[in-house]
Amino acid sequence: MGTPAFAACSLQKLIDAGYDIPLVITQPDRKGNRNKMVLSEVKKLAIQHGIETAQPLRIKKDPELIEKIREIDPDMIVVAAFGQILPKSVLDIPKYGCINVHGSLLPKLRGASPMQAAVLEGLDESGVTIMQMAEGLDTGDMISRCVCDIKGKDLTEVSEILAEAGADLLLDTIPHIADGTAVYEPQDDSEATYAGMISKTDGFTDFNEPAERIECKIRAFIEWPACYSYLDGQQIKFYKAEVIDEDPDGEPGTVSVTDKKSYVINCRNGKLRVLEQQLQGKKRMSAGDFMRGHRLSAGDRFGE
């Protein structure tokens, strides 16, 4: 059970290792640009390997699918960034239970967006935890963990790093679960933190935040919803920037200085040099290309 590229990496490694996978469950197809249907990365991979696929809107309200899983009688269900909470009726089916490949070092960053949260918090390290799924939100016992360096990385890079590490850890862990040598460690709930669902408005900035925080936001939300603001009523998304450790010389959101390749925006603390952005309705471009088509001067202001 999984949906994005992070999950597809684990599926591919299970296939390569020769495991029998009779069914893949993923999120429903969604509409993309021009109403073209977009398949999840996991579904694309399942089709490529001729594996049957199910796409429930809500698995807990799909008794036919739950009964189908019972008929398959799996030894184990592997879950990775599936995007739905599993009911007890599913958790209890497999002989060895449901095993989750979670993109954080539990009990830190439980929830739906652990990798985005790790980047947003500016963490130097994160990792992957293989856990036995329980009814709570990422509350089950930990079986294995690995630590990864994510310093300065954006979400795409972090996802690739953790996907590979998680898939390898999964392959190392499954045999221990099967032969009874796996060690199950309860989580310390007092140390738990949460990474909730991300909304589009989370990406907005009026630069009334520290420059370090905004730069982390740019890296964390690079895939969606992007870190964005407005200039003269037009939305601008930011994709690459660097922190300048200088006191601001104007109000948050005002342009401090421009040159041929970049422009600098005052933040609440420090400044941010913008290197790549996207104007509403246009393609991503360098700051230099942007300024060749738009006059940007010191004192111009980004904000609401």
Order of helices and strands: HEEEHEHEHEEHEEHEHEEEEEEH
The rounded distance between the terminal residues' Cα atoms is 40 Å
Provide mean pLDDT, rounded.
Answer: 96
What is the CA-based Rg, rounded? 22 Å
As for the number of domains, it is 2
Oligomer: single chain
- Which stretches are low in confidence, meaning pLDDT under 50 for 5 or more residues running? none
CATH T-level fold name of the largest domain: Rossmann fold
Structural class: alpha+beta
| CATH H-level superfamily of the largest domain | Formyl transferase, N-terminal domain
Strand content: 15-25%
Number of helices: 8
Kindly describe this structure.
The protein is elongated, with a radius of gyration of 22 Å. It has two domains: about 5-195, Formyl transferase, N-terminal domain (Rossmann fold); about 200-295, Methionyl-tRNA Fmet Formyltransferase, Chain A, domain 2 (Roll), CATH 3.10.25.10. The two termini are about 40 Å apart. It is built from eight helices and 16 strands. Strand 15 (about 270-280) and strand 16 (about 285) form a beta hairpin. The chain has about 300 residues and is of the alpha+beta class. Strands 11, 12, 13, 14, 15 and 16 form a six-stranded antiparallel beta sheet that branches.
Give the SSE layout.
Layout (H helix, E strand, L loop, with lengths): L4 H12 L7 E2 L4 E2 L5 E2 L2 H8 L4 E2 L8 H10 L4 E3 L8 H4 L6 E5 L7 E2 L2 H7 L4 E8 L9 E8 L5 H25 L14 E2 L15 H10 L6 E5 L2 E11 L10 E4 L4 E4 L4 E9 L4 E3 H7 L11
Parallel strand pairs: 1-4, 5-6, 7-10
Antiparallel strand pairs: 2-3, 6-8, 8-9, 11-12, 12-15, 13-14, 14-15, 15-16
Helix pairs in contact: 1-2, 1-6, 5-7
